[in-house]
Specification:
alpha/beta; Aminopeptidase; 10-stranded mixed beta sheet; 4-stranded mixed beta sheet; 16 strands; elongated; M20/M25/M40 family metallo-hydrolase; Peptidase_M28
């Protein structure tokens, strides 16, 4: 899966000519290719791959000359969660043992199911149909096996994180949830790697135990020269899905666009602002567990005083050209504060433009790591270029370096660096966002 970087250097002029020239295309390519490499294993929390990625980011922050956050001894902001994790799974179809993914939904501990009367079966090809089942538990009247079509492979990580191995803050919370799980109204999702006839027999045996899971954000900061108690945050998430069912022998979900691209931006911006010392304090953070519940950004946000956070630049999926063309990106929640207009004003005279989110139906504003601080009134927005409605590589094993435009990524990072200048240097303060319930 390693590709020549020469393939990714697109032709064209610098989007913000004369600005941000500390941000070099070659350096962007080095960082993103490291984060999206096979040896990172898809950067799933709890795996050696994400630990390697965390160390890589820490090393980059050290080279940038950052300091750890207050109260932290290193760039790792560590915490733990509790979840149910399978200790054994046996799955047979028509008498043959299968290694297809099987996902037990909810907080049930043990499952011993054999095809017989009393079990419902549903075949699902569409995410919307599946969500209708999972989010309306009152409609489930009996134990139900849901067969997932191969087209649903990209959703397995999300389904595991949000509906099977949901994390709890304490073991006691999880034990209480397990005690309340109804034994006769549970759901198991089975990945139908090959067509299964309605007449086929099957058996599923699952044992799950409580275990604790270690997580770590990677965060550093530059103390402001004149307004050290006012903070500007630059963030992206460095986790991804790990591995998925193999396609043409490839099972690694490299997550090049989602979100090695955004994490690369955070690293590059840390080096840029170290060379251009800020007036306000600036925090640079790579979040963990965005894909598995947003645990990293929530933990980080709980440690902040939202009244002291002036703005948050969350950067997610900037690896490809936006629907508005080159030299452009969109900002989620554009209408909720004057954050976007400030950025665009600071780019006057350049060819780069920021636009409002063109996908309001996707509710992207509250689907990324900006959400927790935004709900507390912080002008926290996500900058992105993803064409989320038609990106065929999203959450697949094909989200690789070869699909990205490194030149365009570099231009976007340059534009963010320059457009953030008056906020970082204390001359502009974005209006606050209306608070929302958490």
């Amino acid at each position: 899966m390693k590709k020549s970087l020469l393939l990714f250097f697109a032709a064209g002029s610098i989007a913000v000519s004369g600005y941000g020239q500390d941000i070099k295309e070659k350096e962007v390519a080095r960082i993103i290719s490291s984060l999206a490499a096979d040896d990172m294993g898809g950067r799933l929390p709890g795996t050696p791959g994400i630990e390697k990625a965390a160390q890589f980011i820490s090393n980059e922050f050290t080279q940038a000359g950052l300091q750890p956050l207050a109260g932290e001894k290193s760039f790792l902001q560590e915490f733990w969660k509790y979840r149910l994790h399978p200790t054994s799974v046996s799955f047979t179809v028509s008498g043959g043992e299968k290694d297809w993914p099987v996902i037990a939904v909810g907080a049930g501990r043990n499952f011993d199911w054999e095809k017989k009367d009393g079990y419902a079966e549903v075949h699902v090809k569409d995410p919307g149909a599946l969500m209708k089942i999972l989010r309306t538990p009152q409609a489930v009247t009996q134990n139900t096996l849901v067969w997932l079509a191969p087209s649903m492979a990209g959703y397995l990580g999300d389904l595991t994180a949000h509906f099977s191995e949901r994390s709890y803050n304490t073991q006691e919370e999880l034990e209480a949830a397990s005690a309340k799980a109804p034994e006769d109204k549970q759901i198991i999702l089975a990945f139908e790697q090959e067509p299964v006839a309605d007449t086929a027999t099957w058996s599923i045996h699952i044992r799950r135990d409580i275990n604790s899971q270690h997580f770590a954000n990677v965060a550093g900061m530059i103390k402001g020269s004149a307004k050290p108690n006012e903070y500007v945050v630059f963030s992206g998430h460095y986790d991804h899905l790990g591995t998925l069912p193999a396609v043409a022998g490839d099972s690694i979900a490299n997550g090049a666009d989602d979100d090695a691209s955004g994490t690369t931006a955070v690293i590059m911006l840390s080096k840029y602002f170290k060379k251009h010392p800020p007036v306000r304090s600036v925090i640079f953070v790579a979040f963990t567990a965005e894909e598995t519940g947003g645990h990293g950004s929530r933990y980080f946000s709980e440690k902040q005083d939202p009244d002291k956070v002036v703005a948050m630049f969350n950067i997610e999926m900037i690896g490809k050209e936006s629907k508005f063309g080159e030299n452009s990106a969109f900002i989620t929640g554009f209408e909720r504060s004057d954050f976007g207009p400030i950025l665009q004003r600071n780019l006057k005279g350049s060819s780069f433009n920021f636009y409002p989110d063109p996908y309001p139906e996707q509710n992207l504003f509250y689907r990324s790591d900006n959400a927790t601080l935004a709900r507390q009134g912080v002008p926290a927005h996500t900058i992105s270029t993803t064409q989320i409605d038609k990106d065929k590589f999203y959450h697949t094993v094909d989200d690789e370096l070869s699909t990205l435009n490194i030149k365009n990524i570099t231009d976007i990072i340059q534009a963010i660096a320059i457009s953030a200048g008056t906020i970082v240097n204390g001359t502009d303060t974005p209006t606050r966002i209306e608070k929302a319930s958490l």
